[in-house]
Amino acid sequence: MNNHEIDYKLYGDDMQFVEVELDPNETVIAEAGGLMMMDDGISMETVFGDGSEDKGGGFMGKLLGAGKRVITGESLFMTTFTNTGQGKKHASFASPYPGKIIPMDLSELDGKLVCQKDAFLAAAKGVAIGIEFQKKVGAGFFGGEGFIMQKLEGDGMAFIHAGGTMHKRVLEPGETLRVDTGCLVAMTGDIDYNVEFVGGIKTAMFGGEGLFFATLKGPGTVWIQSLPFSRLASRVFAAAPQGGNKSKGEGSIAGGLFDILGGDRR
């Protein structure tokens, strides 16, 4: 085993958090801002890159790996949480929006998992976090959020987050599934993945489902989310009051009565 062996427990239903149990000198890595709480005796450190063990690449190798993370929109740095005390300690990491936290044992997935760029939450130290480029670069640049994917490599535990309801689908050899690029959360490394243009200009312009689909071909396993953060954000933005008229919000009964009675809010 190259990765630290960590135990964990999930709490909650739609707004979950994962509690990681660390033995002395065990470490978990996470994105900055993912921590919810931790016991006394856990030491935090900001590291350059993904915090995985150096495999001989030196500083330039770490710099290249960190640069790849920037392409996915993530930070150059990650945070490590190490049990420097006596006995077992716990650190908890919360999901960023409503959905599910999915524990992934990379040793059971042939050592590799490909996931959405913002799906990663935390992992045992030793898990390498990079990017996964697809073959058709042209389609990828216009394929939206589904093109540049993160890859998690190692043999330890990793935790990813999916919005809404998560659905796991096992594809048989040759079986093909078409998924909205935003709804694809993760897939095993043996999935043949591509981004395809939706044919028909009317479908593309008026279909409301975007211009591209992720085409997944088995064998392998894929994880799909029902509520990508991009959809959630767009709905919130569309429902937000526009301009200076802030009295038209949903459920503003008191505000409506105030307006009827001729009140002035200024």
UniProtKB/TrEMBL annotation:
Domain of life: Bacteria
Coiled coil: none
PANTHER family (UniProt xref): ALTERED INHERITANCE OF MITOCHONDRIA PROTEIN 24, MITOCHONDRIAL, TRYPTOPHAN RNA-BINDING ATTENUATOR PROTEIN-LIKE PROTEIN
Protein name: TIGR00266 family protein
Species name: Aquibacillus rhizosphaerae
